[in-house]
Design goal:
This protein has a domain of 60 residues. The strands form 2 sheets. Strands 1-5-2 form a 3-stranded antiparallel β-sheet, with helices on one face. It is 11% helix and 10% strand. The chain has 168 residues and is mostly loops. It starts with 9 loop residues before the first strand and ends with a strand.
Length: 168
């Protein structure tokens, strides 16, 4: 980490803030802070950017701003902004699912993960939603909207580090 890096530069480290500061030279002391949203009014960073706080990068991935020059569909976004997580459709194989339409069975009006439970009554476990009760007419299909489960975000395997911002 060169001492000539300008304010607003970032670096990542496996050190805690105390360890990071202890490892800095006396010349660099006080020049770097965790990117945790703290107030840095009066620093060179605040003077240059017009922002009195550093960004809070905890839980965020870094992404370069702008549009890729060889693939304009790769949009990095505007500098110093956050983007919410998104999930795209698979590129090569679509999500598919199907239900059979054969066989006599009934439904109690509540969709449950265990299809055998649907026709036996007295079901327990989480409900997947409601459906109109059916008779034992056999050939019918199911439409289910999934509104539960999954994770809070789409993310690759990660290794957690601290991100520091140079402020002076």
């Amino acid at each position: 980490m060169a001492s000539s890096e300008p304010p607003g530069s970032i670096t990542q480290s496996l050190l805690t803030e105390a360890q990071f500061n202890a490892a800095l030279s006396s010349h660099q002391a006080g020049q770097w802070v965790l990117a945790d949203g703290r107030n840095v009014a009066g620093t060179r960073y605040a003077q240059i950017t017009g922002r009195n706080t550093v960004p809070d990068l905890r839980g965020a991935y870094l992404r370069m701003a702008g549009t890729n020059s060889t693939n304009s569909t790769w949009q990095g976004g505007t500098l110093n902004t956050f983007h919410e997580d998104t999930t795209r459709m698979p590129r090569n194989t679509a999500f598919t699912g199907s239900t059979s339409t054969n066989g006599n069975h009934t439904h109690d009006g509540v969709l449950r993960p265990d299809h055998n439970c649907w026709s036996s009554g007295g079901c327990s476990g989480p409900s997947l939603g409601t459906n109109n009760p059916s008779g034992a007419a056999g050939n019918h299909s199911h439409t289910v909207t999934i509104s539960a489960g999954g994770d809070t975000e789409t993310a690759p395997k990660t290794y957690v580090v601290n991100t520091f911002v140079k402020i002076n």
